[in-house]
Q: What sequence folds into this?
């Protein structure tokens, strides 16, 4: 049995009226957020301050990653009105920055790349000054899909490695460590203005040398931004936490990452991919 969740891995931010109001607005516009679907511990803090990470292409995923709370099921057809509705929400919420992520859609020929592109273009048309950050799946590494997203002009493009290479067979079923690195490498080789970003979860049984190798691998593909956070078991069916990493260790990883050349790093227990965008 694991010891009780340490205080540094909890967020006691109150769910006040602003949170309920934002949730109501999202429901009225039939929009999803990964904040809710993935049971993010920072939901109360972010929603109270008007920060959301939109989850597009439905809330059913085609992969079964054992760390994630998003439901795995056959997805519905794409909603062609969704890009415009997300854009309208960005305008109504007066967002200066927005993060767009999605479920993995291996059922679609392009993995949903065109839908991402349409969403980016709709947002920038509605709110020209907004900064758009993406957190995308791997699109199975298809260059045509990656090019479709790149041509739409996101400001930051995130793709998470999530964990060390040695744990992929257990943690990221259906994904491949090298393929994920190749996505980040492709972005840097084929674009001049897009920052790249990745994220790691700790506490799944990884070792420090393994984590440091991941940091080196990310810098070898010129990854700009990095988030490192504590894995928290979202459901009883999810992988158990092997270890709670102390804030001091997170600081050590931050120092190592900055020394390797990352532009900015958020490394703390409750850091998540889209938590307080670092650019």
A:
């Amino acid at each position: 049995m694991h010891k009780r969740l340490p205080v540094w891995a909890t967020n006691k931010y109150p769910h006040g009226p602003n949170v309920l109001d934002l949730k109501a607005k999202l429901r009225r516009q039939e929009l999803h957020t990964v904040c809710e679907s993935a049971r993010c511990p920072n939901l109360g803090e972010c929603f109270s301050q008007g920060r959301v990470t939109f989850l597009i292409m439905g809330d059913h995923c085609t992969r079964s990653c054992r760390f994630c709370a998003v439901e795995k099921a056959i997805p519905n057809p794409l909603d062609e009105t969704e890009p415009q509705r997300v854009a309208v929400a960005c305008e109504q919420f007066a967002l200066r920055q927005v993060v767009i992520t999605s479920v993995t859609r291996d059922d679609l020929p392009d993995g949903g790349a065109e839908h991402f592109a349409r969403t980016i273009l709709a947002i920038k048309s509605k709110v020209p000054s907004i900064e758009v950050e993406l957190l995308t799946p791997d699109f199975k590494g298809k260059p045509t899909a990656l090019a479709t997203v790149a041509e739409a002009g996101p400001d930051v493009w995130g793709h998470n490695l999530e964990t060390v290479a040695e744990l992929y067979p257990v943690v990221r079923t259906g994904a491949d460590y090298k393929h994920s690195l190749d996505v980040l490498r492709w972005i840097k080789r084929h674009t001049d203005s897009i920052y790249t970003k990745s994220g790691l979860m700790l506490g799944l049984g990884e070792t420090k040398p393994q984590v440091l190798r991941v940091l080196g691998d990310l810098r070898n593909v010129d990854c700009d931004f990095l988030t490192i956070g504590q894995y928290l078991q979202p459901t009883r069916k999810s992988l158990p936490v092997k270890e709670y990493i102390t804030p001091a260790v997170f600081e050590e990883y931050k120092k190592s990452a900055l020394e390797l050349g990352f532009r900015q790093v958020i490394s703390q227990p409750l850091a998540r991919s889209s938590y307080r965008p670092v650019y």
Q: What stands out?
A: The beta strands are 32-33, 53-56, 60-61, 71-72, 97-102, 131-135, 156-158, 195-202, 225-230, 264-267. Residues 7-267 form a domain with the TIM Barrel fold (CATH 3.20.20.70). The chain has one domain: 7-267. The mean pLDDT is 87.
